[in-house]
Design a protein that fits this description.
single chain, alpha+beta, about 10% strand, 4 helices
Length: about 220
Amino acid sequence: MRRAALLSVLLLAVLAVPFGAAADSPPPGATAKCRDGSYSYSQHHSGTCSHHGGVAAWLDGSATAGGGKTAAPTTVAIGKTVLLAPRTRSDGCVRSARPDRRCSPGAYYTVLCSPGFHTGSVRHVTQAEKFAVEREYGMTPKLYGRTIEIDHIVSLELGGSNDIANLYPERGSGTANYHVKDKLENAVAALVCSGKLSLRAAQRAIASNWETLYLRVFRLAATRA
């Protein structure tokens, strides 16, 4: 009787090892683990896990100086949210290439110019918050895939806040889409971090009219990615 019980315990212990190891191992080719437990296979960091709560951990080794092992996710002190203007409405917001300032005036934390900084370190917009933005803009709250993105008005690269005042639905195709704005965000962050443009000027310009800022930075209209 005791022998049978001991064999049962040993069998359970043996079976537990491979199943547990498989559950903790990322799938082949995954470059990041998202905060909702899913995996991303993106080959660049911009926008990775944007629809899954942000990046919980990078799996591509980019956070290290060459040791081959990915460092633990970095915790970034982001401070309090500062609105660029009062938020006066929370419904009946008007959709366009630019956010409705009454609902989405823009908000920021602080700029982060560290070489190891990834937007996934500070990105945290829940699906519930995305649905709330969609409702404010008169949309049916649901998953729209790549057709729209609940985007940050002041980008995370410029210290943008995850507060709803800094979010709006941005289209994924046509002119002035979120792919085009992503290109601008990276370029403006580089200007700020190099000292060629002040942080506050960049934040206010991208929140006020990002298409005009795109024209100033790239000398052409924001018509393509």
